[in-house]
Amino acid sequence: MDFVDFTAGQDDEQRRLDRVIRVLKDDLTLGEIYKAIRKGLVKLNDKKTSADARVKKDDKISIAAFLINKKDDYDTQIPVKDKKNKAPAQKNHVKLPEVLFKNEHIIIFNKPAGLLVQQNGTNETSLNQLVTQYYEENKTADSISFKTGPLHRLDKKTSGIICFSWSLEGARWFSKNLQDHKITKIYRGIVQGSLNHKETWKDNIQKDYDSSKKFQTVKIQDDEESNAWTEVTPLAKGTCNGKEITYVEFNIKTGKTHQIRSQSAHHGYPLLGDSAYKALKTDLSLEYFLHAWKIRFPENNLGLPSQIECPLPKDFSDFLLKTCDIKNCSL
Fold first, then answer.
1. CA angle 119–52–129, rounded 5-degree value
2. Which of 106, 130, 208, 260 lies at a CB distance of 3.0 to 4.6 Å from 219, suitable for a disulfide?
3. CB count, 10 Å around CB of 15?
4. 42 strand-pairing partners
């Protein structure tokens, strides 16, 4: 039987064999991977082994040639069938967003509002697809199993800073420091109402399992426990359609789904136009204005700067100039 050989790199060190194969051959199901390893169609250093065997740098991984040649079931460049019409649907041709920073460990983009970060089961192009393709064309990581991916969340309609892994070391460092609250994420947004002074919001956010809703939202429980912490600072005041609005800065200390949107609404200052959280509808170009403006990193050995700032999108800044007194506030 013919085999195709691969050499494990530094970023494959101590990974389980089945997980390495799952990334290397993502057209195989987990069951097919286990079966292939069990039958000796996947070998480690020319020996039959188990799925949970740990891979080391410079190990040889051999995969049966017929598995390597198995046709992929999915190709981001090929039109797929629309579930409703059962006919080929055209792929959206979306360009890779502006790169704000890149080194061998982390790459940071300026995501435009309206671009999905992860696929959602539709034919809509996601940023993750674009970055994965870009990684395959430009990868420098010493690995056969490393796969780039987003390191934190950003809603489709939110613009600004989004970080992706470019190495396993970078992914692990970012995840640990985010979990330890050592990475600071600061947003800029526009809310309904007149916020007069800095506030700190501490709430208990839970998923809302109301199946009657068209899209997933979260809700805030009225109890003493808190899992979401946000500092809110007013920057400028203005009016929109005769209603008071405030340009604000959100410093989130935690990272819950829809944290800013749900807390803003709960405390009486919903994001302007965010009807999902009971704000008044507007005729603006965006449903709401929320922008991931700045990220701060702790001291590190990855070559990351202390902070990265992302300018507001033009439609956001143009709206501010028309509606708010921003003489003493930088955009």
1. 15
2. 208
3. 20
4. 63
For 20, residues 6+ apart whose C-beta sits below 8 A from its C-beta are: 8, 12, 55, 61, 144, 145
Burial (CB < 10 A; 0-12, 13-18, 19+), residue 320, is buried
Token pair in block for residue 100: 């704000």
What lies within 8 Å, CB to CB, of 237 at 6+ separation is 194, 244, 245, 246, 247, 324, 325
Q: Which amino acid is it at 235? A: L
* Structure tokens that stand for 228 in this block: 């979401």
pLDDT at position 76 is 35
Tell me the three state secondary structure of residue 192: strand
Q: Quick one: tokens of 207?
A: 């998923």
Neighbours of 145 (CB within 10 A): 22
Whole-number Å distance between alpha carbons of 224 and 204: 8
DSSP code of residue 73: S
**Distances, alpha carbon 20 to alpha carbons 23, 51, 64, 301, in Å:** 5, 10, 15, 26
In the chain, the N- to C-terminal Cα span, in Å, equals: 64
Q: HSE of 58 in the Cβ direction (CA atoms, 13 Å)?
A: 0
Average pLDDT, the chain: 85
Token look-up 């965006």 returns 286
Q: Please, are residues 49 and 43 in contact by the beta-carbon 8 Å criterion?
A: yes
Q: Are 263 and 201 in contact (CB under 8 A)?
A: yes
Tens digit of each residue's pLDDT (9 = 90 or more) over 172-228: 999 999 999 999 999 999 999 999 999 999 988 887 765 555 556 788 877 667 788
230 by DSSP, 3-state: which?
strand
- Who contacts 216 (Cβ-Cβ below 8 Å, separation ≥6)? 207, 208, 257
